[in-house]
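Hey, I'm writing a tutorial for new members on how sequence and structure tokens pair up, and I'd like a real worked example in the thread rather than a made-up one. If someone can provide the structure for the chain below, I'll link this post from the tutorial.
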Amino acid sequence: LGLGYANVGTLLMVQSIPYDSELGRTIAGALAAIMTGESYATSAEMAHALGAFHRYSENKESILRVIRNHRRAAYNQQDYEQLTIKPIALNQKLCPPKLLNAAHDTWDNALQWGEQWGYRNAQTTVIAPTGTIGLVMDCDTTGVEPDYALVKYKKLAGGGFFKIVNQSVPSALRILGYTQQQIEEIIVYCVGHGTLQDCPFINKESLHERGLTKEQINAVERELRSAMDIRYVFNTTTLGKESYTRLAQGKNGNVLNALGFSDAEITAVNEFICGTMTLEGAPHLKEEHYPIFDCANRCGSQGKRYIHPYGHLKMLAAVQPFISGAISKTINMPREWTVEQVKLAYYDAWTMMSKAVALYRDGSKLSQPLNTTLEENPELKKILDEKEEPTMRVKIQKKMQIGQRNLTLTALLEEGKSTSIAVAFDGLTPVQEAMTNALVNTVNLSLSHGLAPSLIAQHSLNVEGHPLVRELSAFLLELESSENKPSLSNGLAHENGFEHSQAIQQSKKKEEKASCRGCGATQLRQNGTCMLCEICGETSGCS
């Protein structure tokens, strides 16, 4: 079996218990002890009715030794069998009595019944990442992880996003004794007001005085509730390309400065509209309560606190004695950590009896989302200011049908080179839409780093599966063949006007197979007298 749990980080925060604390680790360990002990007890009951697992008799002594060691950890008894390093046992004094008694009872039953009847399962629990199922379960935190950040982006049913503080924060503040008025002010400090109304320096009146139209101001206002930084809202979409270019003087990133606002004023406005994205320094919040809201990384541009890497390692060590498999958990490290510190962390994880450990040093992945501000990174600001607008942009669009659904592929070319693509596909489920966005982001990241479209098509997208992948691959091949055409050099936009090369057409003919009438996929299998699509579930006519 692979039983496990999720949302432990949220549970601790809601209960006003710091993740990196002895009590937090004890509770997480007790929950794991109850879960695994109860699962082995149930497995023994199943063995009584159905028989033990295959070749149990050959492994009886070994598995009973493992169960006895699990039980010793629940009781904090030190006479472990055949262990060179002693695990981190449950703290008998710190553990809440109900959890402690439940852990004792379950392991008593697991051992007693197992000695009588054996076990139906050799392994019962692991702690999975729960990155996907956790979303469906409405978890704020995954697996045994703490929260990654206090501010989240919630997708709205009608489209767009809404910025909210972690839903466990208000509950924790209530338990700590803060009034509703204080809680509201603390949350506003974190996520901001999200509006130009009553905003200092930059508001509807000051923007109108500087030449922005009512329509442009309203467009900016609509984007503020989900904005991370007000400067990103003043773009070609909200202002229009001509107005943006005129105000920015042909450069990126300085529209508000061009309108006459100082950096200090912009910073103050950012805090009012977008919030600080941290609770550090929030009004009314006592400093002694800061550890309750610590996350895996620093929160916002002003946040200084984060869970120490050894806080993660200690949590692993507290839970591992009660999990029959391994634990998937990230050990977040700041970018300042050295190779020697990483090496020592691996060694210490081993000495703590952890079965698996995954270290992540901040900034070590090219694709990591950046959460820095322009003030924090003067080099980034300089690059943005110096980057000239491209002298020529071309948009290429291709429309088609896959099954009964419309697919539109759009590419943007600057100076004759592909810079980005976009995909619009009817009828996607939320999960399919998320996967499609991830695929498109990967392609765009590759394009932004100079990879040729043909390389992306041949290496990253050269797989059988959903027809969307096949069409996207063909689109990239067509893009490369069209990048240096004279028509593109003249700045002409093409829609539905690709000239397919003979090689591409022949490749498509080779791949032609029976396809699903619903989605166009070729992954069909026999289902009785009919064919069943493994992508969307459509059949060829039978129920």
